[in-house]
Each structure stands twice: as structure tokens, then as C-alpha cells.
Amino acid sequence: MSNISHELRTPINIFYSTIQHLDISLIKSDKDFKEMYRKYRKTLHVNCKRMLRLINNVVDISKIETGILKGKFDYYNLISIVEDVTLSVVNYAQLKSINIQFDTNEEEFIAKCDPSMIERALLNLLSNAIKFTPENKNIYVNIYVNDDFAEINIKDEDIVYIVEEAALSLKDYIENKNIELVIEPDMEEKIIQCDKYEIERCIVNLISNAAKFTPKGGRIDVVMKDLGDQVEILIKDTGIGIDEKYHNSIFDRFNQVIDEHSEVKGGSGLGLTITKHIIDLHKGQIFVSSEINKGSTFKIVLKEKIN
Ligand SMILES: Nc1ncnc2c1ncn2[C@@H]1O[C@H](COP(=O)(O)OP(=O)(O)OP(=O)(O)O)[C@@H](O)[C@H]1O
Ligand SMILES: [Mg+2]
């Protein structure tokens, strides 16, 4: 803390002496005043900024220590936030002949974030980078969106087979927990357009949730209905259920139900987010209906033809 107060005092002293100079010049009002004024004004400006940054850091640190620092989160384009911050230090870096290179593979990536916190975090990292990079060298700022997930590999596939395989792969695990698993397709075969690995992933996510949140002695039904140009897949359990107020938020990243009747059973709270994303990419739908202590049903509706 004493180091910080020393640093806080330095710019203040510079303000004072600069202001004194200005006062004297103002009284004398000589010809060179304009030029001098410009020079001192710059010193004031730079030091004001430095001072503000220091004060902000001190305030933030004490907020972090007391647990008060909370972001104001909303949806923003993360790419342009990072790009703007980078651009704002380009001139400053050029004073040291450091070249800053920005690169991205996407123009837009909307993320829930607090832009002012991201700006501050990046500015801290960038100013360190500038400080510790020798003249005539480069600094690279890269923001890459991981898009392995943006595309699905659509083929004609038998959805009955995919769902059965997914369920069978979990059968031993479920039966070892003393839960009954019943697979009931109402058709022998149904060809639809889908990515079989991704759909299998969804079914595995839903059945493992059902197994995770159903006590022993319970039952899980995997039901399939042929609706002609659509197919319905239901995963029903007799588990702890989900309060209606959580029916939307469980599909958000990292969200897990934490209330008096449920207990968090590990996991990351990503399974349903990924599942919904995959179903969206298939232009399908996912629904939940549930009653506390009675059980939950997750329903996926997939189209026979996506396009
Ligand atoms: N069948 C279910 N019965 C009761 N609660 C459920 C059921 N499925 C999901 N939930 C609730 O929704 C939350 C989010 O589910 P999700 O699959 O996204 O995450 P998770 O299972 O906790 O972790 P992960 O799947 O990433 O390992 C769960 O933590 C749980 O509270
Ligand atoms: Mg899960």
C-alpha cells in the first residue's frame, strides 16, 4: 500500500508544479505563453490519465479483496471490444517502435460480458507487453473463435438405430444404479437428415442426466414417435424433477439447479447447452416438462429433411 501511495503522489506533484507554472505564465502573459501552455497541458493530460488508472486499480483491488467487484454483464461483440482496445494502444506502442498486430478469424462473436472489465484486463496485459518488449519488435493480439462446433455433418441416417445405440451404451451404468431403462421406438427404422455423432451426443447427455438425477428404483423411458416429416424423441425419468422456474435457465451455460430439493451432482452445467446448440443446428427443437419429485421429460423434435 505504501508503494502505491508513493506512486499516487508523484502525478499529483506534477499537476501542482505544472499548474504553478501556468499561473506564473498567465500573470506574465508573455508571447510564448501559447506554446508553453500547449506543452504543459500535455503533461497534465498524460499524468491525469496515469493517476486515474492507478486510482482505478487501487479501488478495484480493494473491491476484489472485499468481494464487491461485480461485472455489469450484457451481450456484446467480443471481437470488436478486443480490436478497439488494441487499436487504442497502437500509437503509444509506436513511440517505442513496437508494432502491434491484431488478427481474428471472425468479425463477430457475441458474448455475455462486461466490456469495461475486459477493456481494463486487456489494457493491463497490453501495457505490460509494451513495457517489456524491446524496440522494433512485435506484439500479437489474436482472437480466434473456435468454430469446430459451428458445422454439422449432415447425412441420411437411421435415427432409431442412433438412439438405441446411445441408450444401450449407457445400459450397464444405469442398471448398476438400480434404475430400469426401457427403450420403446414406435417404428423399426426412420431415415432422417442429421449428424449421427452429434445427435448421439445429445441423447447420451439427456440419458445420463436422467440417470444422474433419478434415485435407485427409478425408471428411464426412451420413447420415439414417427410424426411423418418429423420425429419425436422423449427421455422420461422418475427422478427429482426440476422446478418450473429453472426450465429456461438450465439450457444456459454453467447453469445447474441449486435449491433445497436438489443437490449438485458434479458435472459442469454444459451438457444441456451443448445439446440445445446441436439441436438448433439441426433446426430442431428441445423441450422440458417436469414436476418436482415426480420426474422430468426432455423432448427432442427433429425434422426428416433439414433444408
Ligand atoms: N433429468 C433431470 N432431472 C433433474 N434435473 C435435471 C435433469 N437434467 C438436467 N437437470 C438440471 O439441469 C442442470 C443442467 O444440466 P446439464 O446437463 O446442462 O449440466 P450437468 O449435468 O450438471 O453437467 P454436465 O452435463 O456438463 O456434466 C443440472 O445440473 C440439473 O440441475
Ligand atoms: Mg448433464
From TrEMBL:
Gene3D superfamilies: 1.10.287.130, Histidine kinase-like ATPase, C-terminal domain (3.30.565.10)
GO MF, any single term: phosphorelay sensor kinase activity
SMART domains: HATPase_c, HisKA
CDD domains listed in its UniProt record: HisKA
Keyword Transcription (UniProt): no
Subcellular location: Cell membrane
Reactions the enzyme catalyzes: ATP + protein L-histidine = ADP + protein N-phospho-L-histidine
Gene Ontology CC: plasma membrane
Annotated Histidine kinase domain residues: 3-306
Top EC category: transferase
Keyword vocabulary terms for this entry: ATP-binding, Cell membrane, Kinase, Membrane, Nucleotide-binding, Phosphoprotein, Transferase, Two-component regulatory system
InterPro entries, A to Z: HATPase_C_sf (IPR036890), HATPase_dom (IPR003594), His_kinase_dom (IPR005467), HisK_dim/P_dom (IPR003661), HisK_dim/P_sf (IPR036097), Sig_transdc_His_kin-like_C (IPR004358)
Record-listed E.C. numbers: 2.7.13.3
Record has Transferase as a keyword: yes
PANTHER family assigned to the protein according to its UniProt record, in alphabetical order: HYBRID SIGNAL TRANSDUCTION HISTIDINE KINASE C, TWO-COMPONENT HISTIDINE KINASE
The protein's name: histidine kinase
